[in-house]
Amino acid sequence: MIQVLPIQSSATTKESPNPGRLIVLTGPSGVGKGTLMRSLLQRHPQLYYSVSVTTRSPRPGEIDGKNYYFINRSKFEQLIAEGEFLEWAEFTGNYYGTPREAVLNQINSGKLVVLEIELEGARQIRASFPSALSIFILPPSFDELERRIRSRAQDSEEAIARRLHRAQEEIKAADEFDIQIVNDDFQTALNDIEAALFE
Fold this sequence. Notes:
Layout: H1 4-11, E1 21-26, H2 33-43, E2 48-49, E3 53-54, E4 69-70, H3 73-81, E5 85-91, E6 94-99, H4 100-108, E7 112-116, H5 119-128, E8 133-138, H6 142-151, H7 157-171, E9 179-182, H8 186-198
Parallel strand pairs: 1-7, 1-8, 2-7, 3-4, 8-9
Antiparallel strand pairs: 3-6, 5-6
């Protein structure tokens, strides 16, 4: 069994030749986290992206094992009971979680591990991994966030209303995180994330 505490101390020790670190990227639905993450990984293949597990249905073009691991609720609840998640949360009626073992192994091997997760999960990570770098992505305005969510044309009106209500609550939590980045201009936001990770 891998212990969390030794990872914490090694990740923050200056003498370590190649310390691993956990990076958490969060923000409201529709803010552009996924697009920023894809560009970040293309530009920096040395980053380890932790693929989340979810009970929601795949969106058009999503690939099991690449975008998410898509499983049913009973299997997800079994994994919760077995302690297989570093964090997990329920969001708009679906479960999302981060597989524990793969993330801890990568941190121990000296990798920068990036998680793109929802607010509740990000708070769990901050509690168990205080040395993690947490980045909150903000929309330029709430109206723009609504426009982006609607432009996906993937959600029902009811689902959009839930996402927007949730987004209002999530945006209030931005100050809990180490860095806040406004995704107004995509390239500027991407550069700001890179500066936080590599400079």
